[in-house]
Structure formats: structure tokens, C-alpha cells
Amino acid sequence: MDERITAFIEDLKKYLKGLPEEEIQEAVSYYEEYFSDALDAGKDLDTILNHLDSPQKIAAMVKTEASIIRTQKNPGLRNYASVLRNAFNIVTTPLTFLLLAVFVIASFSIVVSFFVISLCAFAGALIFFFIIINQAFTAFNQDVMGIVGAIGLGILGAGFLLALSYVFFKLGRLLIRVSVWLVRKMMGKPGRIVPETEREQNTVKRIWSHALPVFAVIMFIGLIMLSVSGLLLKYWMIFNSMKPLGMEVHTMEFDPAQVDKISAVTTHTNIKLVRGSGDKISLSYEQTDWLEYEAELNGREICFNEKSNGRLPLFQLTQLHENSAVLTISIPENFSLQSIDAESYGGIIYIENLVENIEASTMSGKIYLDNKNVKEDCSLRVTAGAGTIEVNGKKEGQETDKGLEFSRNTGDEKTIELTSARGGIFITWPQ
Q1: pLDDT tens readout for residues 350-373
Q2: 231-239 and 144-186 helices cross at what angle (nearest 10)?
Q3: What is the pTM of this model?
Q4: Which of 65, 266, 308, 379 is most buried, most CB within 10 Å of its CB?
């Protein structure tokens, strides 16, 4: 064999290093046969060599083609990165290089995002399940149905997140196959997406045929446990603004002569401030089984605080919505307090027929002030971060960096200040 052919083949082997041995041998055999056939046909060796690309470029093309086939059969980030790296090695024109660079940045970012979402969803499924299970056995003690409901919620949530993880994993692999096919087109090759072998197809079918029913069964079991325990009904009633079942009503009375201030804080129980007909300051609290409270006279201030007892999983999400239970604070006629502070994270605050120094605030709940039957006047300051402000049915307020703001300064000593971060504020005032 001519020395130049030997040198060409040796260089080709050198640049093909990194590929599986059988792929290297296949490429080498092809070009050895090519030289042999061309020489037998009477072609000049110089002409043959001039007609061929350099061994380095041929090796780059072979590596690119091999990586494309490998990636289409087994789409993954490592194989896809190999395709992109090899593709850049055979790009010759600036325009093609630019188009390939833009495509690589876009497609690779999306693929990575899909796999990251898939990984996060998988990790989230495990974390969610173990957090709920831990809560089930620490908060519910001997409450068997509570434990069953919490475990059901953990299974349902974990099953959903696992299904989500699987979907994004498959979407990422599909996008890799399509992207590799497009890269091949950009390289000027008429290739197609390589079909999977029969064994691979059977494996994929087995995975699909088992994975989807398994996730469905997991979620169904969780849903059944959640329903049987009554926990699903609680969520249903909360998010449909229905009165919870099995509430206990607690009534507390305080001597007005011993009270100057009232402070009431709830998670998502509604607060109602009204004038009462009795001669005592009265607190009537509808307690649900997932909340606990403290009410005491601290100095000359009535302090009421509500918090979760841990018996309602996902409470941080649930408390965004009012639960339709009510804390009613009744103030005697002709009695005035220094101040009333009412705060609820997700509950609604109602103020009726009261003119006091009142500060009422919510995170996601609404605030209603109904003083249409009150003759006494007071100043008013209202802020709605993301909601609306309505006064006597008419939208009011000016946009500021805090959201909508509305004020009414009468010069009176008493001021009602209403603030809601994401809920609306509705005011009915004497015309």
C-alpha cells in the first residue's frame, strides 16, 4: 500500500480516537476499500487524495454522525452535548456557525430546563411524602383517621409529582431527538430520526405501559384514603367557603372597666367587630378542629391569638382562604376603647357600626366596613396592595408604590385604618 494511503489511514485512526473500536474499524475499512476501488478503476492517487477531505475533517464528520445515531437511540444530556461539540468541529461557514450557536443555546437551555424540572419534581415527591408522613405521626397522635388522611395526602401528592417528573423526563428526551435531527439537517445531511430497535421499542413500551398505570393507581389510593378520612371534605368546604363541620363555640366576656385595647389575630378565621346590646365585651369564637387559640386579659388589653395545631396538612396553603368560621367581638353601646387591632392572614374582616381607633389588616382576605347607620364621623385610611377599593359601590383610590390608597381626613380623633395585601376592601359610608 502506498505510504500516502498508509499515512492517511493512520491519521484517520488517530482523529477517530475516542469512538468504540468497532466504529473506528468500520470507518477505516470503508476508506481502505474506497482507495482500493478507486485505484483499481485507474484513478490517480493524487486526484483521489485531492478529492477527499482531510483525515481530521472526515473523523469529525464520522464522530458527529456516530454521536447523532447514538443520541437518537439513547437521548441524554451527555450524548446530546457530544453531538453539539462534534457538530461545531465540521462547521465551515460563519452563517452556519451563527445559526448553530443560536440553536444550541436555545435547545440546550430548554432540554436542561426539562430535566431540571423533572429532577426537582422527583425530589419534591420524596420530600413532600416524608414531610406529610412525619406530620401524620406527630400531630395526630392516636387519631387513626387523621393519620390515614395525612398518609393519603402524602401518597396523592407524591404520585402526582412523580408523574410530572416522568412527563418532563420524556419531553426532554423527545426534544433531544428532535434537536439532533435538526442539527443533522443543518449539517446538510439528509438523515432522519433513527428508529429504535425492536428491543428498545419493547423496553419503552413496557416502561410506558407500567409507569402510567402505576402513577394512576398511586394517586387513586391516596385519593381514597384522603376521602375516607374526611380530610378531603375539609379542604372542599374550606375552598368553597362552607362552614366547617364539628365546630366548638367558645364565649368569653370581659368587664369594659378593665379594658382599654383589644388585639385579635387569626390565621384564616373571619373576624367580626360589632356593637352589642349587652354591657360586657364579648368574644364568641367558632373553633375548628385544626386550630387552637389563646384569649387572655394582659394588663388592660384583651389578646386573642389563633394558630394551627398541626392537624390540617398543607396549612400554609390552606390558610390563604377563609374557613367561614367567625370570631365575633362585640363592644357595648356608648363604650369607647383606645384602640382595636384586628389581623387575619386569610380570613375576612367585617366591621359594622363601629367608630373607634381601628387597625384592620389581612394578607389575602377581604375587608368590609359597614358604617352606613352610624352618625358619628371619623377619619379613614385605606390601602389595597393588589385588590380594589370600593366606597358606596364606587371604585376609589389612587395608585402608589404600595398599591391603591384612599384616605378621608375629617380631623376627628378617631381613625379607621384598613390594609389588605391581596384582597379587596369594601366600604359603606353614610351618603
Answers
A1: 999 998 999 999 999 999 999 988
A2: 70
A3: 0.73
A4: 266
